[in-house]
Amino acid sequence: MKLGTGPRRVLLFGALALTLVAVKWVDSNDSGGAEGAREASRMTRPYREAANGRSGSGRARADSASVSIDLSRLERAPSGKVSDAFASRNWEPPPPPMSVREMREREAPPPPPPPPQAPPLPFTYLGMLAESGRTTVFLARGTRDIAAAVGETIDGTYRVEAITPERIELTYLPLSQRQSLSLGNP
Length: 186
Prior knowledge:
There is one protein chain. The protein is of the alpha+beta class. It has 3 helices and 7 strands. Among the domains are: 7-52, no CATH class; 124-182, SH3 type barrels, CATH 2.30.30. The protein has helices spanning 5-29, 34-52, 100-107, and strands at residues 124-131, 134-141, 144-149, 153-154, 158-163, 167-172, 177-182. Strand 4 (153-154) and strand 5 form a beta hairpin. The longest helix is centred in the first third of the chain and has 25 residues, at 5-29.
């Protein structure tokens, strides 16, 4: 339903008149204006006195203005620690506490390193030649072919100790460790 400007104005002025009447009615029902304010003050006095530290006797003390505050107690005690409000912070939770066993393991010195070992043999078996009681083996190291017999030194690093139909025994000279190269024969 659409109202024109005339009826709309009548409704607005009626609402305004009702509001003014309601305000006047509420104001007239207030218990005597200043008398009501005194009554409200009398009702809240015990609460104010309790907040000020007075007894609930209802008498106001005249010496309430003589209360002094020790301002030196309000000052912050100097501390050696100055914190930076803009410093970066670590928000990760702290690590869980360590067990006694973990603490002992951390305190124990690390075990000594293992003794040095010879590197794996860099040779590949190519073949063997046995003539007039002397056996020669043919090995490959990368792209280089090597022919060696018992007692010979290869590259100043390996010495051929023994040659059998199943394997070649070599000694790694820097550590004096023996190594075997399987020939792969059944």
